[in-house]
Amino acid sequence: MKASMILFASILTTVVNAGSALIPARTVQIDHDFSFHAFPRFSNGYVVAYDRNDVSIMEWDREGKSLFSIPLSIPEASHLIIADITAAPDGTVVVSASATTAESRVAALLIWIEKSGSVRKVVRTSPYSARRVLFTPDGNLWTVGRVHDDQYNTVRGADLMRRYDPQGKLLGTAVPHASFAPGVEVPAADSFLTSNGSEVALYCGTTQELVELSAANGAIVRYAKNQTSAGTEPLGVALTSSGDLLISARSPNGIALSRVDRASGTIEDVDTIATRQAPLRPTFLIGTDGDSLVYYAKSPAHIMWITLSR
Asked: Minimum mean pLDDT among 1-15, 179-193, 214-228: which range?
């Protein structure tokens, strides 16, 4: 899966597109109001979530029907910390987590869970730990994380991304840590993964870079984005089936959705939460479904499919 990397020397500029608008297409109620320590995702037709407070995981189908809501436990693990969650096209869920035993041994894990809620497989990945996980429509699992040494220092010579087959077999690695600027200790710490089936995109919030990979041949292109304002916090990334690449981020001016224009080398702001009309406020980008963006909104909890006009 390794491939050469093309680094765009020019920094993407930001423009405002006043003609775009978010158009609600579909809404589904969810029987769970996520708190600040619960994190929903939309993946391959399923809504999945984990709760760091009680170490539980949940899954719903695209109609909002609950498939399971269970506490997550692993034999011999006295403590679990969940990092991320994703769902495969068949409803299988994978959770990335770190587990601690009663003897204080720590291991990084990928946990495969059936749609029934039962644990199917646990794959130990240490010294690699996955910060983000994403199933693509072909059933392969992509991750971004870091490799550490015996003192838990980051190994800069290792790759950040790994790809596993549906059974958990490692297929390959990509994106060298050393390709990021020195001083960036953990590029995956503030990152997001997204895919439209043919491509996979990694957004690194720390460096504000997009790394785009072909799911078929592993070719990589990196886009660099300038920081438009201090305190920008990425909230989600979306890659649609038509090839639109969008970033949702919080800044001092509010939450904005921006589109990466590959042809012109610009990032255009296409939406800000301050200008939205009800029922679009407040909403958070949690995934894509074809050309639709999938948002989560609270009170009451619901999932919204939204199209982006031009």
From this structure: 1-15
Alpha carbons 129 and 46: distance in angstroms, whole number: 24
pLDDT score of 2: 42
* Residue 117 contacts residue 99 (beta carbons within 8 Å): no
Two tokens at 225? Answer: 């984005």
Q: What are phi and psi of 273, to 5 degrees?
A: -65, -25
pTM for this predicted structure: 0.87
How many percent of the chain have pLDDT more than 70?
Answer: 80
Residue 19 predicted with pLDDT over 50? no
Whether 258 shows a pLDDT value over 90: the answer reads no
Confidence at residue 11, expressed as pLDDT on a 0 to 100 scale: 32
